[in-house]
Each structure stands twice: as structure tokens, then as C-alpha cells.
Amino acid sequence: MFRIKKLDIFITKQFGLLFVGTFFICQFVLMMQFLWRYVDEVIGKGLSLDILAQFFWYMGLMLMPQAFPLAILLSSLITFGNLGESSELTAIKAAGISLIQAFRSLIIISVLMAGISFYFQNIVGPRANQDFYRLLLGMKQKNPEADIPEGMFYSGIPSTNIYVQKKDMNTGMLYGIMIYRMTGSYEDQAIILADSGMMQSTAEKKHLLLNLYDGVWNENMRSQDLAETANVPYRRETFSSKRIVLDFDGDFNLADVNEIAGDARAKGLGKILHDLDSIKEFNDSVGHAFYKEAKSYYFRLPEIGKQDSLKIMKEVAQETANFDTLFNRLPDTQQQEAIRMAMNNVQSVASDLEMKAVYAKALHRQERTHQIQAILKFTLSFTCIIFFFIGAPLGAIIRKGGLGVPVIVSVLVFIIYYILDSTGQKMARDDQWTMWYGMLISTVILTPIAVFFTYKANNDSVVFNIDMYKHVLFKMLGLRMKRHVSSKEVIIEDPKYQEDADSLLHINEEIGQYIAQHKLLHLPNPIEVFFRPGDDQTIERIVEELEAVIEDLGNTKDRQIIAYLNHYPIVATHAHTRPFRQKWLNIVTGLILPVGLFFYLRMCRFRLRLRKDLNKITETNGLVVNRIAQMVTQEAKA
């Protein structure tokens, strides 16, 4: 039976306070990033405070599901980082409480947050998305002149550039207007200057009505049908009031409310699944219609039976049905006419197919967009749980609180998630990846990482031990670390110098016998390398004796002997005999020729290195023995 304990309340309080703070930080960062897309819609438009408040309110509701996972990741990492840094986590484990038991209250909170995230995506988010874009549409339809900036040319209207020196957002008046209009080419231009004017949208929202006051209209007349002897190269018109209708299909011509409501982001899960069936059925009907039309018009071939087909094949074989021969018999005019008709038919068919391909691609993109939004409601909610099982174990492992290391780690994890998720969505939307693969790639990659960190943290395993990874990397690449022996400040027992010297001389004798017997400079037999078991026990025994001597001499106070000890190489006792210790793995490697050749050459390299190491050991042994003899002589004289 689950009982709420004081530890659960303590950890929940620590997490709750941090979650509230980190949530608002993450929400602010996401809103600022999202605001850059619509900064031109807000800045310098003279919008009232209530409109701006609605703008940011709907934006915040839309981005809350994305802020939940990031806030859980950061707050859980800081919470357990603080507990580890203050040794409270150590006290919890010392009391017999495992890390998973310490997690249990926050696991429940993470599951609840996943449910809240799903609710926001399914209920609140679609409504906020629809109201947000309705607000944008209303802002543009109410003040169409708001999109035109002051002091710079605006090219958002097709074939027209508008310059406005000053705007009055209260009255809607524009001052210092300059308009460049191009009707056919750069030679067919009209330049309109006006002291002031006012812009309004027409009722159907398809045109802009511009009333100009006190201005001049200058227009080039080259494109008009004037005689070459005409004395008027252009016309100039001065007006006190003039009305101009501008065709506009740009930013002002946004989708209406029905199209906004048809966006998949503005629908809940039930609405998406309901509409998805209709979309699939409509797409299938369009595909069948295209197929029937193609079959009727593009592939109108007469139905022939078996006898007719045999007859045609016989005629072709006898070259009586050669189309090139028939074409060459036609007169030149008929040949040109046949070629022209064929080209026209091909171009017509190609244009028709291209148009249908674009339309079909748009239909399938709409279907995939609905599928993406349906899957995203579950994956984004599940990310809350995944991020907790990444952040909390990492905090317990790193044991660093505050906003330093946790923020760096959280940003790195979120960047990895964002890249995977964005790439998967884009590939799935463009139909380059399958839908489930693109939408689940971030979840499939991050889930094993969360399990790995949780397992390591629960078992107090070292994850970020650089020396461990460095040792594994060196071992894989065949590299080795240098020996580091330093003088000890406190020595309990002095070295047994005479015994160590005798051992080193004995090691030199064994090394000499080993080199003469094994012939390390010769290539080994591949059969013995890959298909016969056996380790080099002689080298293992020599290295064990040498390490025992080095460990004993490490207690010396003589700096010269310490320096000699650092000259000893760290000998690999296995790599010069066979690639792996497992017999079956060596056999498989030997049967695969390219892989076997690589490991065979690698083993030859280790044999050469072993020969070099043995010579180095023999040389260093002599230096150490001589130094010990000098020390014994000095002690005898003293």
C-alpha cells in the first residue's frame, strides 16, 4: 500500500518550487523564440494593450505543452543535484532507501504532468491556436495599413512598392507617400507621389482601396500603342484626390476562419481522427478519378485479341509496320505538322500531370499533417516522463545544484531532442520517412538513454568517469597510458632492495629466454592465431613479477629510482597472441577475411611493441639494479 512519507513531502516541495520557477523561465524562452515569427505583426502597429495581452495569452497557451517537458527536466536535475551536493542523497541511501523509492513521488507528479500536457494539447491548445490566428486575421483586416512600415519601401503588394514617410495609427492616415507600379516590365513604370492618403480593405478582402490627396502621377508611355512620331513619351497628371484599387494576394489575404479551423493544429484528437477518415476517403476518390481520366484519355488503345497481337508482332518482325518508314514517306509539311501536334499533345499531357501531381501532393500533405498532430499529442506528453528519468538520475550522478551545470546539461539534452523531433516531423511531413518512424525517432532514442541513466544512478555506477572512458578508448585503439609513480610522503615499510634487485636480474634472464624462443619479429601462423586457444602465460608471469617489484620499490625515498620506475612501460599481456579471449569470436573473425586481416596486422603490431617493451624493461632493470648496488655500497661505507 502506498503511503505518503515525510521524505516524499520533502522532495515534492523541493521539486515543486523549482518546477514553478523553471516553467516560467522555459515558457518565456519559448515565447521569445516564437515571437520572432510575428515580430512584424506587433512592433510599431499601434495595437492596444488588450490586443497585445490576448496575443501573448494565446501564444502562452499554445506553448505550454512544450514548456512542460523542459521544465521537468531542469527542475528534476536541479532538485537531485542539490540533494547530492548537500550529501542529503547520501543520507537517504544510508537509511536504506533506494533511489527509485526517492523518485516515487516525482514519478507520480510526472505522470500527472503528462496527463495535463495531453489535456492542453487536446483541448486548450487547439482553441488557443484557432483564437490566435483569428486575432492575427482581425488585426490585419482592421488596420491593413499597419503592415506598411515607416521610412522604408514595402514590397508585399505584387508589382507595387510603397514608401510611407509617416503613419497616424489613430486616424489611419499615411503621409509622404511614394508608389512605384510596374505593369509589364521595368520600362512600363508609373511613379505616384502624394502628400497624404488612406488605405482600406474592400469587403471581400481581396483588394486594397487607396485614397490619395494632393499628388502627381508620372507614367511611362512606351508600352502603349503610340506612333513612332509621337511627341509625348510619358504622361504627367496632377490631382487633388485620386482613388486607386490595388490587387493584393499577400499577407493581407490570410485564410478565413473556416480554413483556420481546418488546420490540424486547431483540432482535438477526436476531431482529427474523424476528419482523417474523410480526408483519406476524399484523397482516394481524387486518385481514382485521376486514374480513370488517365485511362480514358492517355491510354486509349484498341482492345485486341490474341490473334491480332500475333499479327502485329509478325508485321513488326517483317518491318512492314515500321513507324519511321511511314513517317519518312510523308511530305515535309505533313511531317512538321505531325511533329508539332505530337509536341503539343506531350506538353499538354505533361502540364496536366504536373498540375495533378501538385494537387495530389497537397492533399497527401494535409493527410500527413493530421497524422502528425495526432501522434504528437501522445509523444509530447510521454516526453514529460522521459525527461524526468533523464534529469533526476543525472542530478543524482552529477551532484551539482544551482543553475550552472544543470542548465548546461538540460540545454544539451533538449537540443538533442529538438533536433531529432524536428527532423522526424519534417521527414514525415514531406513523406521521406514513414509516419511512425519520423514521429517516434526522438522517443525511441531518448528512452534507452533514460533507462541507462536510471540504472546507473540506482546502482551508484560511475557514468561520467573520464578515466574509465579514456581507458576503454585507449584499449580499443591499441593505445596505452604512461606509468605515473610518485614519491610517498608517508612510508610505512621500506623496500626490500636486495630481493628486488635479485628479482629484476631473474626477470632479465626470463626475458632473454623468451625473446630467443618466441621470435617476435617473425609473422605468426594465422591458424594458431584464430583457430587454436591458448594465452601467453610466460609474459603474464613476467609482468606479475615486475609489477610486484615496482610496487615494492614505490616505497623508496630515492628520487632516482622513482624516475627509473616511470620508465617501465605498461605491458599488454594478451593482445600479441590473438584478437579476442573468446574462442568462437576469434574463429568468426578469422573466417571473415577483411576483418581477420585487420586484426592479424594489429596483432603483428602488438608483437613488435612487445619486443620493444621487453628491451626497455631489460634496460631499465639494469639501471635500477645498478642504483640499488650504489645505495648498498654507500650504506656500507657509512
Which outline best applies? elongated
Q: Helical residue percent?
A: 55-70%
Radius of gyration: 41 Å
Helix tally equals 19
Measure the end-to-end span.
79 Å
Describe the protein in words.
- This protein is α+β, with helices and mostly antiparallel strands.
- 64% of the residues lie in helices and 10% in strands.
- It is built from 19 helices and six strands.
- It has helices at 6-35, 39-42, 49-85, 88-94, 99-142, 257-261, 269-297, 306-317, 323-328, 332-398, 405-429, 435-458, 466-477, 497-518, 526-531, 537-553, 559-565, 583-591, 593-637; strands at 153-157, 160-168, 173-182, 189-201, 207-220, 234-247.
- The protein has a six-stranded antiparallel β-sheet, with no helix packed on it.
- The model is unreliable at 223-232, 249-256 and 300-304 (pLDDT under 50).
Could you write a compact summary of the structure shown?
The chain has 19 helices and 6 strands. By secondary structure, the protein is α+β, with helices and mostly antiparallel strands. Strand 1 and strand 2 form a beta hairpin.
